[in-house]
Amino acid sequence: MRPVILAIESSCDETSASVIRNGKVLNNIIASQAVHQKYGGVVPELASRAHQQNIIAVVSEAMETSGVSKTELDAIAFTRGPGLMGALLVGVSFAKGMAMALDIPMIEVNHMQAHVLAHFIDEPKPSFPFLCLTVSGGHTQIVLVKSHLEMEVIGQTQDDAVGEAFDKAAKIMGLPYPGGPLIDKYAQLGNPKAYKFSETVMPGLDFSFSGIKTAFLYFLRDEKVKNPNFVEEHVNDICASIQQHLVTMLLKRLLQASEQTGIKDIAIAGGVSANSGLRKELKALGDAKGWNVFIPAFEYCTDNAAMIAVAAHYKYLKQEFCSLDVTPLARMPL
Ligand code: KG4
Ligand code: ZN
């Protein structure tokens, strides 16, 4: 029953640990950081401190609930990047300490590759090659997935990530951070066709989300001149319309990518893949186009260590270990 791996994720504002045995994820312990809410976004220094406070408890819980003893571990995996440097450092340092103490190898994992590999935690699993739309607070990518560890970005945002667009739209409306899930919640009660916004069209399979932020800001400013209570009175319709706009932008490119590559196994990953509008519209598009659509369980959409554990499993099978002098990378290509 090998390998047994402990995986640690600390790239942004979730401290997470997971144990995987022979490719089967045994648990996924996550401590979220509420400290950022009052600042309207993740404060890197506070994230780093919160990881330091949480990491021992999170790893201990993962070890205890897995039923695996430390001496049974074959490797320690960790997120090397991309992410916040101070946050990554906590996970990397902790992994080094444990690997040294137990005299076992370390496995470095690319956070974005792990988001894609979240599809290999449970059944059904996509078959290669497939396309994955990876949408988070820091990234928006269309990835051509050739094998577990071979991936190519064929389209990406040239400025903001779509998660950022969700969060900034929410902030403009006066909603607390992180606004993405709140927009989703209010959108479910609103009319997605109530308001229209203009779109910045990029060449090829690329995206741009910085223009929509400004367009949205001016739209609300103009409406508030006519009616100071515009946002409060129309919050559901505004959320439904901005969500519809962002989802449509994503799916247009995904459709184009499928047509260009001829690939019909289509997956989504990353925090924004928790969005109910995106999930619903992708299923509908998939039905219309004869795609096999793969949508991860909610728990595996946002940052978690189970996806790091799965990535580490495949790296272990190829004996891809890293040395003890490994350093985190704030930027790390796929
Ligand atoms: O993958 P993730 O947890 O962290 C990063 O690596 O960035 O993604 C976080 C992003 C945030 O922008 C958050 O607002 C967005 O995912 N998000 C959502 C939803 N749930 C999380 N956006 C829209 N609808 C949701 N239901
Ligand atoms: Zn992420």
TrEMBL record:
InterPro entries: ATPase_NBD, Gcp-like_dom, KAE1/TsaD, Peptidase_M22_CS, TsaD. Its EC number is 2.3.1.234. It catalyses: L-threonylcarbamoyladenylate + adenosine(37) in tRNA = N(6)-L-threonylcarbamoyladenosine(37) in tRNA + AMP + H(+). Residues 24-309 form the Gcp-like domain. GO terms for molecular function: iron ion binding; tRNA N(6)-L-threonylcarbamoyladenine synthase activity. It comes from the Bacteria. Substrate binds at residues 134-138, 167, 180, 184, 275. Binds 1 Fe(2+) ion per subunit. Belongs to the KAE1 / TsaD family. HAMAP family: TsaD. Required for the formation of a threonylcarbamoyl group on adenosine at position 37 (t(6)A37) in tRNAs that read codons beginning with adenine. Is involved in the transfer of the threonylcarbamoyl moiety of threonylcarbamoyl-AMP (TC-AMP) to the N6 group of A37, together with TsaE and TsaB. TsaD likely plays a direct catalytic role in this reaction. This is tRNA N6-adenosine threonylcarbamoyltransferase.
